[in-house]
Each structure stands twice: as structure tokens, then as C-alpha cells.
Amino acid sequence: METTIAEPKRTQTPPADFLPLEGTDYVEFYVGNAKQAAHFYKTAFGFQSLAYSGPETGQKDHVSYAIRQHKLTFVLTTPLRSGTPIADHVSKHGDGVKYLALRVPDATSAWNETTKRGGKSYMEPTTLKDADGEVVMSGIHTYGETVHLFIERQNYRGFFMPGFRKWESVYNPPDTGLQYVDHCVGNVGWNQMNPWVKFYEDVMGFRNILSFDDKDISTEYSALMSKVMSNGNGFVKFPINEPAEGKKKSQVEEYLDFYDGEGVQHCALATKDIVKTVTDLQQRGIEFLNIPTTYYDTLPDRVGHIDEDLEPLKRLGILVDRDNEGYLLQIFTKPVEDRPTLFFEIIQRKGAKSFGKGNFKALFEALEKEQGLRGNL
Ligand code: FE2
């Protein structure tokens, strides 16, 4: 199944990017127990301790741990008291993504440009200072209770952010080769995909580079629709899913039920060696969706020559898909919390800029099997 990425429309003078983005700065999760979550991400995913914020640093109602692996930074935040916005968020949604923080050269301009185009302000431009310099931060709301923060840090020399102190730990498990955020996918409600596509186009200057309708993404039972939004330089990509009618309940609907609203479905984390990364992750207890071994019978015909041996891909359950620019290897974890909500994708791109359309059927059948076991199909 060939997939072609939409080229930018040629105009005589391309408009200047009003929201230049340098990539994902960090992803922050609101969780029920950040101390244990940080231990899990260190142990299972190979993140390293980076920074801490809590009562000892003057933060009275919550605690945050920042952890890092190569260019990938996660922040795990938990409330210390009930009745706070963070506690209410965790009570409603369970563990999930609160902030998709984007690196910008100018957080004041990012806020001005997006709010004047209809973005709803979450945080006006705010300067945070300490002895290592300053970070300017601002933010706007996106789907559900999710927020895009704009982070300007070129005048900061510290290890993470003012308000945090260095977190040194005697426990430093080796990394697993995860490099950066490739894309983060949002699940939105019925008939909400196009309004959110318009939000990313109008408010953030993104464009729709790929669309999948319910015929592309349906199995015997359930269906969904998806549109991929990308910023100008392609560093930041946000696919948006909405449920579609099928014989049984869409996987997106199951998410919306259990997350109690719209939110981030998965973040795709890039690696340069997926066989090594997934071998490490499986040995550390990360569970992946099981793909039927028959998937590999037709793989060579479907994708042609690939550099990797088929045997380890089959053993680990890694999927392969090709587009007109190359191929990609990908695999999906089971949800990383008890609610069937957030999960991760591990991806290695070898030229391909698409999202594995050729794998959707095998993947969603595997997902539905799990959904059926939970009694939610
Ligand atoms: Fe993905």
C-alpha cells in the first residue's frame, strides 16, 4: 500500500512561519504517584534522573521529576493534596499527558500569534529565572484538558528549568536507545477531528499532510478516522483520531470512555536501532501488542528489500511499512497504566515520512483482541 505525503502548496512567495518550532521540548504527565512512575520509566524505558521540584524547592502542592534519554525529556508530576487542579485531573483521567511542550525561539511571539488567531490562552508569557539564566514560557489549550506550552530557553544554561534542582540518583539503569519524540497522537470525540484539524491549521499554522478515512482504518468490527498535522519544518507532528461507526465499539471510543474525555493516545519515540531497543524494552518488562506471525509471510512481497533480518522482527513483533520515500519499522506497547488509555509507539524511520498505513489492519486486529479481553468491544 503506497502512501504519498502531501507536498506544501507552491505559492510564489511562501508565507513566513508565524510559529517557528524547534521540536518537542518535553512531555509532562500528570500521574498518581510520580516517584513510582519515575522509577518505572527509568527501569523499563531507560531514562536517566535529571531534575526534581517539590516542597524542598518551594513547590508546595505538587512534586515533579524530570527524566531524560538523549533528546527525549519526560516530566512526571503528582499532586501532594486533594482538591487541587492536578489532583482533579488525575482523579478524572488517571495517568496521562498534560503538556506537550514545544521549543520555540520566542515564547512571547508564539503566544501572541496563536492567541490572536483564536487559540485559548492557558498561560501568558512568563519569565522564570534562577542563577543559570531564564526560561520564558507561555501556553494555549488544545483538545480535552491537554495544553501546548511554548518554551524559550536559549538564555538558560541550567540542566532543566528554574524551580528544579538537579536530581542525582544512585540508580542509573542503562538507556534503551530512545532518541526523541517522533509524533504524539490525540484522540478526539465524534465529529471533532475536522474542528481540531482546523485549529492546528488556523491557530498554529500546521498543514494536513496525510488523511485516513474509515475505509483505510477499519477491521471487521471497529473503525476510526485520522488526519496527520505537521508544522512547517516537519519537526512536530500531531495526528488526530476520531472514532468511526463499525459493528462494534471503536478503540478511540474505548479510550474516550476510560480517559473520560479527549487526550493523548500515544507518543511515538524514535530509535536508531529498533531491534536493540525493543529487545531491551521486552527484557525490562514492557509489554507489546502481539502480532500474528502470519503477518510476516507476506511482508517481503509488500515492502520489498529491507536491511534488517526478518527473524528478529518476527520474534519481537516489529511491523514494517513502505512509502514513496523509504520504509519504517514500528511497534506498539500495551497501555502503560491500568486504564486502557495512553501507550507508546517505538519507531525507526529509514526514509519513510508516513505512519504505517500498511500495518493498520494487523495492528487494529491486535488492539481489538486486547479490547475484547477487557470486555469493551
Ligand atoms: Fe503513531
What does this structure look like?
This protein has 377 residues and is α+β, with helices and mostly antiparallel strands. The protein has two domains: 143 residues, 2,3-Dihydroxybiphenyl 1,2-Dioxygenase, domain 1 (Roll), CATH 3.10.180; 197 residues, Roll (2,3-Dihydroxybiphenyl 1,2-Dioxygenase, domain 1), CATH 3.10.180.10. Helix content is 23%, strand content 33%. A nine-stranded mixed sheet has the order 6-7-8-5-1-4-3-2-9. An eight-stranded mixed sheet has the order 11-12-13-10-14-17-16-15. A hairpin with a 2-residue loop joins strand 6 and strand 7. It is globular. Bound molecules: fe (ii) ion (FE2). Fe (ii) ion binds next to strand 10 and strand 14.
Order of helices and strands: EHEEEHEHEEEEEHEEEHEHHHEEEH
Largest sheet: 9 strands, mixed
Q: How much helical structure, as a percent, in the residues?
A: 10-25%
Annotated CATH architecture of the largest domain: Roll
Task: List the keywords.
alpha+beta, globular, 8-stranded mixed sheet, 9 helices, 2,3-Dihydroxybiphenyl 1,2-Dioxygenase, domain 1, 9-stranded mixed sheet
Summarize the structure.
The protein is an alpha+beta fold. The chain is built from 9 helices and 17 strands.
Secondary-structure blueprint:
Blueprint (H helix, E strand, L loop, with lengths): L22 E8 L3 H12 L2 E6 L8 E8 L2 E8 L5 H9 L2 E8 L3 H10 L4 E10 L2 E9 L5 E6 L12 E2 L11 E10 L5 H10 L4 E6 L10 E8 L6 E8 L6 H9 L3 E9 L2 H10 L15 H5 L6 H7 L2 E5 L2 E7 L10 E8 L9 H14 L4
Parallel strand pairs: 1-4, 5-8, 10-13, 14-17
Antiparallel strand pairs: 1-5, 2-3, 2-9, 3-4, 6-7, 7-8, 10-14, 11-12, 12-13, 15-16, 16-17
The site of fe (ii) ion (FE2) has 6 residues, from strand 10 and strand 14.
